[in-house]
Amino acid sequence: MIERFVLGVPVYRQRFRPVCRANTAEKMYRLLRACCAHAEQWREPFTGALECDETTFGGARHGPRGWGALGKVIVFGIIKRNGQVKAMPIAPLDRKAVMQQIDAHTREGSLYYIDQWQAYATLKLRGDHVVIRKEEERPVGRDHINGIEGFWSYAKNWLYPYRGVPSKYFHLYLGEVCYRFNHRNEDLRTLLYKLLRETPITKLSPL
User: Is 6 helix (H, G, I), strand (E, B) or coil?
Assistant: First the structure.
């Protein structure tokens, strides 16, 4: 099961060559995702040059689109230039929630690259920041937030084969994607075996 999880094979695609019952496989996948999410939750706060951005995941195709689409989950992300990423769900367009995540996951004195969203208005109290101006969705000048936007593409492409993610467990899927991205140049199977051995089950998010 760990090998299939590493390869990103959804449980529904294993029905012709199952190694266990489907509900058992789902529970195993959920445990692995919870271990990944737990590891990412306790990652050290970032410092240095950081890119911040927000996006939406999921949602019904009919009706309103964009930020107002039914069922959309808004996710805020921080990436260290040429390095690791942190991402977490937030309340819709909540300025306080964004600043709470920045306070929790970055260190004062960092250099922040941000877009023109007004939620970042008080960011100057934590460190220097560069506001990225865009025209037709393209950055103007040499400054950019291509790193975090690249992660959004990576995350959505990775989750697409699952044919929808249950909202109840979205935080676990997001933790999994962050863990995969942050360990993209390592042997994920070996890391997962180690996580299973060392992660206290009682401290995991609800399974």
Answer: helix
Tokens 């199977």 -> residue: 189
Spatial neighbors of 53 by CB under 8 A, at least 6 apart, are 76, 77, 114, 115, 145, 148, 149, 152
Q: Which residue has the tokens 């959920």?
A: 30
Give the global pTM.
0.86
Q: What is the pLDDT of residue 114?
A: 84
In one letter, which amino acid is 206? P
In tens, the pLDDT along 64-110 reads 555 455 568 899 999 998 899 999 998 876 778 888 899 999 998 88
State the number of CA atoms in the 13 A half-sphere of 22 facing the CB. Answer: 7
CA 16 to chain centre: 31
- Give the mean pLDDT of 162-175: 90
Collapse the DSSP code of 110 into the 3-class scheme (helix H, G, I; strand E, B; otherwise coil) and give the result: coil
Instruction: Please list, residue by residue across 84-118, b when 16 or more beta carbons sit within 10 angstroms of its beta carbon and e when fewer do.
Output: bbbbbebeeeeeebbbebbeebbeeebebbbbeee
**The two three-digit tokens of residue 93, written as one number:** 């367009």
Q: What tokens does 94 get?
A: 């909540």
Q: How far apart are CA 7 and CA 3, in angstroms?
A: 6
- Does pLDDT of 21 surpass 70? yes
